Amino acid sequence: MGFLTTQTEKLYTFENIEQQTKLTGPKDQLLALIEEGLEVNLLVRGNQVAIQGDSDKASTALAVLDALTQLIKKQISVGPADVASAVTMANRGTLEYFADLYSESIIRDNKGRAVRVKNYGQRQYVQSIRKSDLTFGIGPAGTGKTFLAVAMAISALKKGDVERIVITRPAVEAGESLGFLPGDLKEKVDPYMRPIYDAMNTLVGADHVSRLIDRGVLEIAPLAYMRGRTLDDSFIIVDEAQNTTNAQMKMILTRLGFGSKMVVNGDPSQIDLPHGVRSGLVAAQRILRDVDRINFINFDSADVVRHPMVGQIVMAYDQAETRLAELKKAQKEANK
């Protein structure tokens, strides 16, 4: 027996043409994101938007439009990522916290734009980094783990909270070791560190990144180069941590020195280690879950802040993997 849904139409009125232009976006692009995320129809009629659909969803869409309007009134630019975040938070029942995300910025990027968290999950992540010595950010690509960690590191450096930034990740190659690759260390390492450089370049500019490296204030290196060191007064970011072995994870965690913070990011669904080698990130979740001053922040597909389709792709793969695991379990039981 199915449940009957009540179809309705609600109206949202723009206060002026500027507000309307900023809220609808080019070719009503921003409204289309609300339609897709909330399963409603939005029709622009003069200075109003007609919201058509299930009564509860129409009410939610109305609340999303109002939340976005409040940002515009504060002279905050609204883009696709902001709309996607508002929709996600509305679906999760956390839209009341949406305005809080924009109450402060972490830093300003190379073009002077404020860098802010985009959803409730990111807010928890940033708050954890501020309060804890060690934060694990665990979840799929596109949730902003690396970018926000780099932004927090730059902010800490500018405030004088740390003296340097150390960013590392395991270099998992297809049957090659770094020693056999052509070029000097930088040329060997750069392909594996490209996402880090992209984030740094966006936030402070390529020229400034080069100066920081030359001064020894910024170090971007493979995980193997961290062995035997103690990193005091540093902001340490371990990226792609799902590809660390258990021994590598223990090694990098014990590099943490006085006056330092560490952020460890990874996606357990994208482990590239050889078959039979257990991920150090997966083991750390079990081993360290009850240790004080260590926080685990878990993201899921709803926290993805890229194109909405990315979140749907992640969710589809998660569902497929769950079905496959259930099938294997059933086959195993049948073979007993």
Q: What does the model show?
A:
Helix 3 (55-73) crosses helix 4 (80-92) and helix 5 runs parallel beside helix 6. With 336 residues, the protein is of the alpha/beta class. The longest helix is centred in the last third of the chain and has 27 residues, at 308-334. Helices cover 44% and strands 16% of the residues.
What key attributes describe this structure?
single chain; alpha/beta; Ribosomal Protein S8, Chain: A, domain 1; Rossmann fold; 2 domains; six-stranded parallel β-sheet; PhoH; ATP binding; P-loop_NTPase; cytoplasm; PhoH2-like
Secondary structure elements and pairings:
Blueprint (H helix, E strand, L loop, with lengths): L6 E7 L3 H8 L4 H10 L2 E5 L2 E7 H19 L6 H13 L14 E2 L5 E2 L4 H12 L2 E5 L6 H15 L4 E6 L15 H20 L1 H9 L3 E5 L11 E5 L7 H8 L7 E6 L13 H8 L6 E5 L9 H27 L2
Parallel strand pairs: 6-10, 6-11, 7-8, 7-9, 9-10
Antiparallel strand pairs: 1-3, 2-3, 4-5
